[in-house]
Amino acid sequence: MNTPITAIPLPASAPLLSRTGWATFCVTLIVICAVAPVLNLWVPAGSMFHLSDYGVGLVGRIMCYAICALAMDLIWGFTGILSLGHGLFFALGGYAMGMYLMRQIGLDGNYKSALPDFMVFLDWKELPWHWTFSDSFVATLFLIIAVPGLVAFVFGYFAFRSRIKGVYFSIITQAMTFAAMLLFFRNETGFGGNNGFTDFKRILDIPIATQEMRMTLFVLTGLTLLGFFLLARWLITTKFGRVLQAVRDAESRVMFSGYNPLGYKLTIWTISAMMCGVAGALYVPQVGIINPSEMSPANSIEIAIWAAVGGRATLIGPILGAFIVSGAKSWLTVAYPEFWLYFLGALFIGVTLFLPQGVMGLVGRILSRKKGERA
Description:
68% of the residues lie in helices and 2% in strands. The protein contains 13 helices and four strands.
């Protein structure tokens, strides 16, 4: 006699955000889209409530960093892949945007030529082939996503197929970004050499060095950060996200269960790289320059530090980590520039030893303790 098979009910999918989470999200959205523009554009400069142009630029840059930290959390916090080369993808997106901004200069450059100034200085007669679509904003938007994504896909495919993991994977990602930095330093590559791209004039034929444009870029960056946060939150609440966390915890068991980790790891790795590319593209018009130093190994290590300080596998933690570390860096590099690197190293060591779950882990323990006292 056959025993009937009883179906095992699957757990209900978690909501995208809790009620408190949605409330916080909406408040943040209002601050970015309404409060900050009002404080910067309409509140007089002498008022204590005025948001300075410097503050707008600083927060805008940190939000770009926060996107990178969020991307790092997807691969390190939820998949267990520590990358020390994400600065490459950030810079590739920045260079794609920088090429478009250089073409937007037109005849307003120092040499009054249709070619970028550095090409005229090097006696180039025409644009190289990889600048073909740099005058199109639509093509630039595509390249901002496609170039980092393609590089990440090709690299990730061979690395994950070879089952390279752990510290070995971290080392080769850092070697990759260092090799790219050396390549972009060469003048013959057509990326401006060690000076990179700068002196931007316009974007979409609109002057870039205006208060209104700075605030527009600020709002776009904030909306992009919030959008990527929702995307990341949705990804980890799906079956795809649960498999990623299983790969992080016990990849061999995942393979034994019939899943091929290659596709999952490659997909999240590529998505993470494209997020960094978008962050780099938003970063460049706000700081006004892009050069190979953005690919330095130290920059990629900083991205990992943001995620570690904020708390891995929390999504909101790495965003907070980016604000905490970058905010401290902005202050310390002015007040105590010779001590900044010591502070960064001490911070990373301290978090590793005393706060392995980062700031969010500390907050969670404090809240749990308070709940226990009330009970």
